[in-house]
What we know:
Elements: H1 18-44, H2 49-76, H3 78-95, H4 123-126, H5 132-135
Amino acid sequence: MPEFANPFVNIVPRMLTKAELVQALRIDIAAEIEAINVYEAHFAATDDEGARRVLAHVIAEEKEHLAEFLEVVKMLDPEQVQYLEEAPADVTAIIAGRVSAADDTSPTAGTISGGPPSPPRTVGSLIDQQPPAARIEAG
C-alpha cells in the first residue's frame, strides 16, 4: 500500500521564514530525486514501448522540477551557490587524488558549530545509552 506524504503536516499559521522555505525546498528536491529513481526503475522493468515513452517523458519532467527547485534554493541561499560553484573543481581534485578528507574546509567538517570534533558514534557506542524517556525515574 502506498504511503502518501501528508501535505498538512508542515502547515504553519504563518508565512515560512527564508530558512524554513529553503529547508522545505530541499525536501521537495529529495522527493523529486525519489520520483526519478522510482520511474527509472519502472522504465527499466518494462519492455512495453508505450509505457516506456510515457515514463521517459515523466522522468524528464521530474528532472526539470528538481532543477527548478534548485534554482529557487540558489536564489535564497548564497552559501549553497558557493558550494555549487566550487563542486566541479573539488570533484576533479578528489578524483585526481589531490585532496584528502583532512583538507576539507567546510564549516561542518568534523565539528558541530565550530566546537571540538565529536567522537564517532557506532551502534556499539550507543548500547549502554538509554533513550530520554527510559532515564526518567518513576517516583
